[in-house]
Amino acid sequence: MDKKITILGAGLVGSLLSIFLSKRGYQVNTYESRPDPRKADLSAGRSINLALSHRGLKGLHAVGLANEVKERCIPMPGRMIHDLAGDLNFQPYGKEGQYINSVSRSGLNELLLDKAEEAGAKIYFDYKCIEVDYQLTQSRFLHDGQELTISADFIFGADGAFSAMRNAFMRTDRFNYQQHYITAGYKELHIPPTDSGEFAIDPNALHIWPRGKFMLIALPNLDKSFTVTLFLPFEGEKSFEKLQDENSVRQFFQEEFADAVPLMPDLLHDFFTNPTSSLVTVRCYPWVKENCALIGDAAHAIVPFYGQGMNAGFEDCFVLDQLLEQHGELNQDLLARYQELRKPDGEAIADLALYNFIEMRDKVADPQFILQKKIEKRLNELYPDQWLPLYPMVTFSDLRYSEALAIGRKQQSIMDKVLADPEVESRWENLDFASIVAQL
Amino acid sequence: MDKKITILGAGLVGSLLSIFLSKRGYQVNTYESRPDPRKADLSAGRSINLALSHRGLKGLHAVGLANEVKERCIPMPGRMIHDLAGDLNFQPYGKEGQYINSVSRSGLNELLLDKAEEAGAKIYFDYKCIEVDYQLTQSRFLHDGQELTISADFIFGADGAFSAMRNAFMRTDRFNYQQHYITAGYKELHIPPTDSGEFAIDPNALHIWPRGKFMLIALPNLDKSFTVTLFLPFEGEKSFEKLQDENSVRQFFQEEFADAVPLMPDLLHDFFTNPTSSLVTVRCYPWVKENCALIGDAAHAIVPFYGQGMNAGFEDCFVLDQLLEQHGELNQDLLARYQELRKPDGEAIADLALYNFIEMRDKVADPQFILQKKIEKRLNELYPDQWLPLYPMVTFSDLRYSEALAIGRKQQSIMDKVLADPEVESRWENLDFASIVAQL
To answer: Which end of chain A is more exposed for a tag (fewer CB within 10 A), N or C?
Structure first.
């Protein structure tokens, strides 16, 4: 098998896909618009750390990398909710022993690049894709001031939310496309290690300061710092547009996140140095045209609130590899099957991610929500095969996102009825759990 | 007032807007990518005739053109439904004396161009807009192989579903955008006048051959021909992809539209000569950036099934002119107000137009639907100020599209309850109409 594959993008998904396809014997050439991150500091811009969970690990496991990656991870078995008074409340994500992993984007990307090259992929940096001709299976690049045209048997667009391949698809008839920005943006901040070189707060949690329409979160890094992100509307009463000077920023943080302020000595510097970035959901169809296919964010860029962007992209690669395992060769039928399998799941995780912003910024502080979590935990203990709450379904299971979403909606409508009982809070431990489960 | 305005597009909306703004004393320069239709035959491509109704006429009336245009119209007071057996059923659109108008796109456009020039607008043809800089209020054109940059105080993008101004907006952060193609496409066909030079079928109706998932329609032309349009899925059991040879086309038409076949002597020629075109809905936001604004299809391209595309665009122009009447000068506040007023209505008419495909191709042949129309007609006769059915609200009233849609949804949920009565068909004339209206 000597088929030649062009992969656009050597980010997380492009590198993992390069490994999968090289291991299947394809001749893989991967083109990345940025410089080699192993040689240049590219920390600016993208979120520094990510939450790696089951679906992502499944993809890494399939190429033999799960253990190596896990060594670089910090487990986060739950959310640590910080209320206005600074009081803490820990909400586990799943059962004992289940956790999501804080991992460095650049560290993971560099490892995947090394492994892709070891597997035989050739990776070209500073190649900016300016055009894809899906009919000729050709991509055109700008490199060192020169234009180059590269032909291949297949092209994968793993080139992210602003994909060049998708732009080419956009100019074809009957291409459905949607880009939708939420009204909130984000800004990265930083909690350094303490003077004694320790984590300033509990490293084994994803910290959330939920404040209704906005929130602050913090994820631990291996260097004992935390990456902090403020999610806040661009406009409105409490918004980025209202935070234009040091006084208003200081006052806002003091009022809303008082316990976090002493942890961020560089708050004002970071706030005015780091960019305010927008958050987009991209949906499109088809993902495949002839021998060209979109994958990862290029096919389904989502907001970060379920921690599933990378995981969904890695699962795309895993599903494609499983199809190769079952059917042998890469061809248009196989790409059509990939699209058919993954499109509904891309839609579902986009919806779930949007929903989870509301959960994180608002609901986690709501007593009704906390009670629901308790009841669902009990349901899961009593009927582990029948009732798995939505978060663990999405995060710790192999269930398709689209199925998880459908089951989650059904569960929510059942729970809405359970919680409508005005006395549920006092008598929840004596609910007729069997009849609740039976409604599913 | 010597403010300079660039209008992109001299189609129906661009020409009408040129008239409105010239009459307000602005210095209007309008750039059109195609040649002057008054000098070249451009009949290929766009639909030959359109349904002009109240909102469009309101815009034409405001510039003193309603009567002149009405002389070129053929009134269509209702739908003429052709069933499989060729039996006819006439369904009025509104009350006695209410009708929509079949009008020639090119004839109307040419009249508007003449009037725009009379009003003082300069219209430049064969100027293809390749870039809009909304910050500099500049547009760049390709004309005669040369690039030209034109500065202005304001730019309006009246350049249709594939707007160059919208493309420029697309490259800015936080621009929400959606393009969605329905699964059906369309092809234009033709019913010529009879040998004796008469209309082959009743000219005072919009003819529909509703067949569930697809349909044929026919609108009269002044030359006593009809423009016929087949709306059919691209793929599937009965679809364009199944109609690849003369035999299958002949057989399909014979089975589905037997009474229309003898009226179309050039059916096979037309079918294989005319293109199969797609149908897109475009939604976007914002419509306005600094001194640049989208209008008409550029802001809200819709499917043609409510006959409202041109009418909605003309109403955009009318609303903008009303704002100028109220507030005096064109400025960013006024453009923001225009956007705020029209965006919800653009969304609403997009939804209504999508819905009406189902009504036209399917429901008009459904006895339940026909019964509902009868009951609603009676409700309207008894309570003319309280119950106006959806179609006349959209087509014959000044009510905002968004309000019409909201009221229409409420009416439908009331009618669903009324029609749920298994004996409604026999006893509908004795319904408690007062209590039905009271539910609104």
So the answer is: N
Q: Render the burial of A92-128: b for 16+ CB within 10 Å, e for the rest.
A: bbbeeebbbbbbbbebbbbbbbebbbebebebbbebe
DSSP annotation of A164 reads H
Task: Calculate mean pLDDT across residues B297-318.
Answer: 98
Angle of CA points A361, A366, A368, to nearest 5°: 140
- State the Cα–Cα distance between residues B327 and B174, nearest whole angstrom: 29
Query: Bigger pLDDT: B328 or B41?
Result: B328
| Rounded-to-integer distance, Cα A25 and Cα B148, Å | 52
Per-residue DSSP letter, A263: G
DSSP 8-state assignment for residue B203: S
pLDDT at A45 exceeding the cut of 70:
no
Q: Does any CB of chain B come closer than 8 Å to the CB of residue A177?
A: yes
Alpha carbon distance A99, A91 (integer Å): 12
CB B273 within 8 A of CB B188: no
Distance (Å) of CA B91 to CA B79, B371, B381, B391, B427: 5, 11, 16, 12, 21
| A406-430 residue pLDDT tens | 999 999 999 999 999 999 999 999 9
* End-to-end CA separation in angstroms for chain A: 48
Q: Is residue B176 less than 8 Å (CB to CB) from chain A?
A: yes
Tell how strand B78-82 and strand B88-92 pair up: antiparallel
Residue B263: pLDDT over 90: yes
| b/e code B390-400 from CB counts within 10 Å (16+ = b) | bbbbbbbeebb
* Residue range B73-83: mean pLDDT, rounded: 97
Half-sphere CA count of B225, side-chain side, radius 13 A: 14
The mean pLDDT of chain B is: 96
Residue-level length of chain A: 440
DSSP B6-40: EEE--SHHHHHHHHHHHHTT-EEEEE-SSPPTTTS
Work out the minimum CA distance from B146 to partner chain A, whole angstroms: 24
Outline where B63-213 has alpha helix (H).
66-70, 105-119, 164-170
What is the predicted ipTM?
0.92
Choose, out of B176, B240, B241, B277, the residue to mutate when testing the contact with A (most A CBs < 10 Å).
Answer: B176
For the record, the structure tokens of B91 come out as: 């369904």
Both tokens of residue B278? 């797609």
For residue A266, what pLDDT band results from cuts at 50, 70 and 90?
A: very high
Average pLDDT, chain A: 96
Half-sphere CA count of A228, side-chain side, radius 13 A = 26
Residue A46 has pLDDT above 80, yes or no: no
From B191, B172, B72, B90, select the one nearest B132 (Cα to Cα): B172
B172 touches chain A (CB under 8 A): no
Please answer yes or no on whether A174 and B180 come within 8 Å at the CB atom: no
Partners of B178 on chain A (C-beta within 8 Å) are: 177-180
What is the model's pTM?
A: 0.94
Please count the residues of chain B: 440
Query: Which of A174, A234, A278 is closest, CB to CB, to B181?
Result: A174
